[in-house]
Amino acid sequence: MIEKPAFTEKKFIVTFLFVTSLFLLWGVAHSISDVLNKHFQNVLHLSKSQSGLIQFSVFGAYFFMSIPAGLFMKRFGYKNGVILGLLLFALGAFMFVPAADRVSFPFFRLALFVLGCGMATLETVAHPFVAALGHQGTSDRRINFSQSFNALGTMIGPALGSSLLLAGSGAAGDLASVKTLYTGIGIVLLAVVVAFAFVKVPAVTSAHGAEEAGDKEVTAQKAATAGNAAAAQAAAPAKKLFQYRHFVWAVIAQFFNVAAQAGTWGFFINYGHDVMGFTDASAANYMIVFMAMMALGRIAGTSLMKFVAPHKMLAAFAFGSMVMCCMVAQGWGWFSFSALLMINFFFSIMFPTIFSLGLKSLGAHTQQASSFISMGVVGGAFFPFVMGLVANHDVAKAYYLPVVCYFIIFLFGACLYRVKEL
User: Where is the signal peptide (predicted)?
Assistant: First the structure.
């Protein structure tokens, strides 16, 4: 009888828990930006399409930073990559103070861009890092488990945003609450940097082939010298990265996945206000439930992956999202609003599962592949603006647009996930 691989190893537990906490941090930041979307509409008098540029600033940073972050990680290791990401994250948060003092939307967008660079670095590093903390056969479960804490972060974000930004009328002219919120975030991030500096990261072997010892990659030449032919072969794949079809489609699927996420999240509060008649603060409170559905979906998905292949789960959840979007677009009161909540349940496993499926069997290409898959997040930079153009007239009908995105993800989970060379 073949023994199933363990979820992780005892020596990795402290590191695994710490890296998992990073998923929570960028979950908080992403979901607060969706509250900022509505807050800036009120305070800075922006249209829905103009406020969609908030997501453009954050997700656009992924396009510019993912490749440099991957190169930095490959050169200096996982731990230093995490520290770099946290420092950029904190810098972007502190930049909200002068932006608020100047009441400048362009300055806010610059701060969001720097903050996004930090999050892009963390995501580029954290996913292969978590995948490396155990056997490849359980990497899907580990990444989905860590992403469950990202979902918890997305619940905390709207709660903070609702209480600090949208309390009362939600249309107060000053930005003092924005400064307070992001100064606090920056301080927390600096504290995490200090704590992680004292964490000793054990030597790890990439879950997808390449070895790392003490946060420094073992090259194919060293592996061959040691007589480890299998490790040498894994560390130096015969094909170039873009000759692996499943990786190319993972980048495409991630582009459309985050596009759908950014649009769906970005106009949630607008949907609650315009279609359901909620106040801004009440709609933000419902967003906590919205994010709780994602956490529930990730917990359920991680458990079901013990019995159901990850790619099948991905295809099924993508189909469920398509159906929910069509129901939301009808604007049928609580029936459609319940479907809107369910979108996040089905969305839950998509990001980590696409990521993990895209990294399969890439050996020494793993770190570079992680950069490109993270770069696919740039889809979230453009889609909210497009949805905003429709939402300016009818926010419900704007939810037809993500159906196209989820159809691409459905195809990836159904057939395009297979490890094949082009």
Answer: none
